[in-house]
């Protein structure tokens, strides 16, 4: 007992003396053994050439990937604001950039920069890497910004739309047993006791089915809902709320997830995502993520929690980028089109 | 290799001072600076996450692995580790134990290895629901014994539900727990054969390790979440790694690179490198495993002061013999006498005076303990000895 007490005191004293120094040095990045970092240098040497540092109003806001040699860069859309500038890995100066097109579904934006002969990112063909595969995030230096492994097989992340209703027990129909003030259902005129028969195109078979269906719609979506009220059918249109508005804030979960750094503002509702355990900051997202062969298997799209970062798989990014570039080029030849025109290409879902 | 981690051991050692017990609202333990936040957190509503008492325990894995060994042959296919201990070359084993890697080839070998074992790790990692609170657990025997965190179990002998990796929900109950170390045990009560992981008690600094669990609670479309990291510090009470953890991971397994359980996810600190796990191995030299199975709860919460019995050692004896009493001794007032040899404290065998000190240190102030003593020729039991605060 005596020993325990004495040791405890010593440890506490030491800690007090050392902690400010340690805290300042660590900066919340997981330190890899030197040998691992060095091994990854050759892995990322090619893809890092296609990695772009993006500044907004002078501050590092995101990374990006060069998608066309004549000055097109894809990045995370929701991090962009103010004056946008790009810095390529082979240059020390920043170049002004304009938003060319956006895909809010994937949270991607294509930027247009006045440049040519840029090294284009080579998206990996084929399967996404499985659970346990190494992933590295190249930054602007020869060492990777972060390294981790795939934590969860690729999956869709529900966008978490919400109506703001309570539902009765699942007995083969979805009966409303409560409506939250001010949210989608209340605004659409849905009332206590209504039975929801149809949600969008989906015939609703029960409470659980309705819950799932709503979660897979986006906040802001306008959805036609067929209700049964007093034996009569009627149709209303609701503009969906977000699940975060509906659920009570889970402060403890939020607090724990904030330990270790800030999270991306937009971090759910991606059509496909690879969850990995690389430690990223929100401003580290938007750039390529590579496997052990140096193949670009995706684009980091969100820092989502203390244990999770998300990457869009290469195929998803490629499709979205193709669509953004093609749509714009068909309607407006690149030379003539105003560079800052925003597009909603790829928004249909 | 210690210098690759700019975290002095003392920094990590300090963790109990500012550690958050994952998922447990009334047991949030924080440094003074965070106390205000902690107060707020206590009032917060924790969706589907674990509630209940925190703390940990001493798993005695010695007795148990032996008893499992008897039926190990027919269960070989079910055991994660059995499938994973395929021939690992000497040099690769060194890499897995934390030796500097020589290049991409080593990383590739590690990746292939992890990809191969990840499925079996996933199969023995389960979601745990006690009441409306979620945590994680790991199956460690064919008949469904589960290791978890004490603060996930909450109370012994309560019904709970487990969600297996294939989504199947089975019934179970909580067993014993040692609150001091946050070790807890449960059992699947639906009869059946379950995929399980073996246990390993050897843990070294810098060795690579894998953590599994259900952060944020079980999610059917996601399943358990893999994290790779390295052991940063091993102390008798905790393994600290950089496998990041968060609420809901509590009770999930920390594996060595052959897929054997070396720890149980327990709590986190402020930093990404303070993720703490209950070591599986340290419990091997006690008989607490049986207490777990019997559903006992013991040990003290992290913030409780240790109890004080107030006995002096008889230096001439190798046993826990009382040589005298300090002033105000609770032991003296409650019937113990000079010359008594203490044999058991709350059914824990006391072999010598050190064991007695440890056992008392593990109890809280105001806790009553049952003490068995040998007095002369007779063995007698003093059913309630109340421990006090050391003056």
Please describe what this structure looks like.
The complex is a heterodimer of chains A (349) and B (391). By secondary structure, chain A is an alpha+beta fold. In chain A, 23% of the residues lie in helices and 34% in strands. Chain A contains 7 helices and 20 strands. In chain A, strand 1 (51-56) and strand 2 (59-68) form a beta hairpin. The radius of gyration of chain B is 22 Å and the shape is elongated. Chain B has 11 helices and 20 strands. The longest helix of chain B has 21 residues, at 104-124. With 391 residues, chain B is an alpha+beta fold. Mean pLDDT of chain B is 79; it is low at 1-21 and 23-77. The chains are: A alpha+beta (349), B alpha+beta (391). The interface between A and B is large, with 59 and 71 residues.
Quick take:
By secondary structure, chain A is of the alpha+beta class. Chain A contains 7 helices and 20 strands. Chain A is elongated and about 70 Å long.
Oligomer: heterodimer
How far the N terminus sits from the C terminus of chain B, by CA atoms, comes to 44 Å
Total of DSSP H or I helical runs spanning 4+ residues of chain A: 7
**Order of the strands making up the biggest sheet of chain B:** 8-9-10-13-12-11
Cα separation of the termini of chain A: 65 Å
Q: Count the beta strands of chain B.
A: 20
Instruction: Characterize the largest beta sheet of chain B: strand count, sense, and whether it forms a barrel.
Output: 6 strands, antiparallel, barrel
Low-pLDDT segments of chain B: 1-21, 23-77
- Beta-strand content estimate of chain B: 25-35%
What Rg of chain B do the Cα atoms give?
A: 22 Å
Poorly predicted residue ranges of chain A: 1-27, 331-349
